Every structure is written in structure tokens, then in C-alpha cells.
Amino acid sequence: MKNGFSQGFLWMSIVNPVEMAIDLYFTAGSAPCRVVLLVAAALDLQLNLKPLNLWEGEQLQADYLKLNPQHTVPTIVDEGFPLWESRAISRYLVNKYGGDSSSLYPKDLMARALVDQRLDFDIGTLYPRFAQYFYPQVFGGAKPDAASLKKLEEALVFLNAFLEGQKYVTGDVLTIADLSLVATISTIDGAEISLKSYPNVEKWFELMKTTAPDYQNANQKGIDEFKKLIAQMKAKTEL
Question: Boundaries of each GST N-terminal domain copy (predicted)?
């Protein structure tokens, strides 16, 4: 079965100052994959895009398992070095290609620790709570669970508090924490979960749409694919 996740992403065009492009194995619409696309755009890195159709099990092929035994996306291969998990990839790319002065992942110990905390909040709290609430409905035909929704809303309250009086999630400067979190928030928004109760999140989200480098290509097009998938899955459950 073909689906929108494996198509439509060869549009990506990011100019790279380095000689060899980095391979990115990804699935269009995946929030973690869009994190890597956003970070690469912010670093002006070229990516050699390699879409995987998860519905057809392409992530279980032997060649891919040699790269990533967990058979997850995203995975990069940079000069023969494979790495997966989007936040680990983000740190690696900035550390290698961002230069000593990159503010995306600051060198200052306390500033970096705060970025790490926000990244850990995203991967350990916000995104899992969204997934636990929403994906059973889309992929399993489950009814909305009030307790799971309450946990997601609690996580959004936390993020709203992080942003109180701040331009970005760790202060006045865009970091990889913002790029990671906007991939999640845009997914939540794409799932038609209202952000109106979280004014700081809404304000920041609008800012990110205009300040995250190449936001349209790196994130919005994936959100559009995500919405198409949701519509397809809902149509099947309604048959």
C-alpha cells in the first residue's frame, strides 16, 4: 500500500557548503524527521533525501537494519557514520557543522543545559503524551481518552510556562530546542488540537513560522502530508 508519507519530499532543496551531502532516511510527515530537516535548514546543510515507506516495511530491509538495528526514522549517514534519534542527530549536526559561535546549541554550560532540558521535555513528555492520546484514534480507531487528553493539556501548560516572558523556549535566541518543539507543536496543531488555551505557545508558534529557516519546506510541507494521512485513516475507519 502506497501512502503520502513516502512521496512528495524530493522537493527539498537545501544548499550545502560541505562537499558531500548527508544521507537522511526519513518519512514525510514524521515530526522527528522534520526536526532534522529544520536543523539542516538552519545550518544550511545539504541532505540526500532517502524516503522510507514504513507501511510497506522498507525500514525492515537488511541494508537499513545494518545502519539502524532499531529500524526507526530519522537516520542519517554522514561520511559513513550512521546516527538515529532526532535530538541526537540535531546535537551532532550543530556540533560538527555549526561552528564555534553557533547559537543553535550554545557552548555556555548553563545555556546548553537549558536547551537539553527543553529537548528532553519534548522527547520525554510533550511528544509522547500527544502520541498516546492521538495515534490510537487515528491508527487504531479508538475513542478519545479523557485521561490522556488531560496529560497532554498538562504538558502544554508546562510549555506555556516555559515561554512566559520569553521570545524563544530558552530565551531571546533560536536554538535546536525551538526547532524540535515546533515540529511537535505543529503536529499537535495539524491534528486539530486547539492551542488557544496556551497564548504563549500560540505566539511563539506564529513567530517560529517566520523565523525558523526555510520553515515552509522543512516543516509545513510535512505537516500537509501528515494531514493527508489523517484524512485517509479517518476515511477508512468511517467505512
Answer: 20-101
Tally of domains within the chain:
2
The string of pLDDT tens digits covering residues 28-58 is 899 999 999 999 999 999 999 999 998 899 8
CB 98 within 8 A of CB 104: yes
Q: Is 180 a catalytic residue?
A: no
Are residues 139 and 57 part of one domain? no
Please give the share of the chain, as a percent, with pLDDT higher than 70: 91
- Give the residue among 141, 145, 207 at the shortest CA–CA distance from 179: 207
* CA angle, residues 108, 206, 34, in degrees to nearest 5: 65
Which pLDDT score is estimated for 16?
41
SS3 61: coil
Answer yes or no: is 221 within a domain. Answer: yes
pLDDT of 101 reads 73
Q: What is the mean pLDDT of residues 68-88?
A: 97
Assess contact for 95 and 176: CB atoms under 8 A: no
Mean pLDDT over each residue of the chain, to the nearest integer: 91
Is residue 13 over pLDDT 90? no
Local structure of residue 143 (DSSP, 8 states): P
Q: Between β-strands 81-84 and 22-26, what pairing exists: parallel, antiparallel or unpaired?
A: unpaired
Domain hosting 185: range is 109-237
Q: Which of 6, 30, 86, 90 is catalytic?
A: 30
